[in-house]
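Technical note accompanying the year-one report. For the benefit of new consortium partners, we illustrate the data format agreed upon in the data management plan: each record pairs a sequence with a structure-token string. No post-processing was applied to the example shown here.
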Amino acid sequence: MSHSEALKVNELSPELQVLTIRNRFLEIFEHDPLLIRSPGRINLIGEHTDYNEGFVMPAAIDRDLVFAIGWADESDATLYSVNHDEFVRFDVADPKKITKPFWANYLLGVARQFVDRGYPVKPFHCVVGGNVPTGAGLSSSAALECGFAFALNHLHSFNIPTLELIHIAQWAEHHFVGVKCGIMDQFASMMGKEEMAIVLDCRSLSYAYLPIDLKDYSIVLCDTMVKHSLADSAYNKRRQECETGISILKKSFPNIQSLRDVSLDMLEKHRDAFTEKVLNRCTYVVQENNRVLAAAEDLRIGDLESFGQKMYATHEGLSSQYEVSCAELDFLVNEAKKLHGVIGSRMMGGGFGGCTINIVLKNEIDSFISTLRDAYYKNFHHEMNSYVVAIKGGTSVISLSTDQIKGINISPTKQ
């Protein structure tokens, strides 16, 4: 398979994508695999609150990674990425981090945790591919980690509780990838429900599902197609700044554990103890936690207009107080605000690139996308991508009917 052929899997319909991954496994390993899908996610509101033990409102979407997994006769395990057209072999008894290909570390970290937690992993083959964009803030990393953890658990019949699988996936990102992410991405990818948002308490991991009635609106993501180099270092720096704020407040409020326990009044009374940057970071997080709870009430009563206004407020905070936006993201939000049929827009994800999330009237979507695309190219001289997404269920087993398997033969040419 050529590299260009390998990449085409992300352009296929969901059914053809599943069949492509299955058929690729059959070609290489010559037996029928177990099939798993694991989705990317959006976050409706509640950004950079998860690692501060706050509240978030994510949802799984109809952009998936598909895993085909089955037993191996040899002593090692084999991973194959259809999107990258690359193989990795490793010792299941001692999975180690590798320099390249880097994508494999998301999976190797998961395997490492299975071993370290005492689960007897046996040699297997796994093929993975799909259409969750990388670098767009849709958490393709969590889809990789959660899908693989779910697949290993299901293949071996370990019966590991879902919450433990979520923690295994998060550990892989922390220790084999190097991003100290909160729990939201893995939780949303694993626990999503169709047409439901999750209101998640990132301290207790208690959660509730809220129906999302978008009425005449859809969710449109506008991808800046950039990821500025300071993204990961700034993410970890923001964590440190929040922790600095807590250490200052603990002198007066020894019982607080995180910004989750802090009020705006507490910050105001002790503002002279903070640097301006640390005060801004803490103020944003406290305000954003309040916005998530208020936005949940908006959903309960069906007030999309009010929900959208909170999205705009979140973006302003992320841009001016938390300083994780960039010129491209700010431009897209400001332009979206001018257009008819848009009731909310903000940057989504870690920042410094990736996507904006927008709530747009269905009959205005084509105009919205074309107008923003033209304006973006005129200002930045490169393309904007876009995705209209629907809210779907979390990581799960895929069942194919006999008719589906026999009816479409889309096997790529053998190597």
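Partners are asked to follow this layout when depositing records. The first strand starts at residue 34 and ends at 45.
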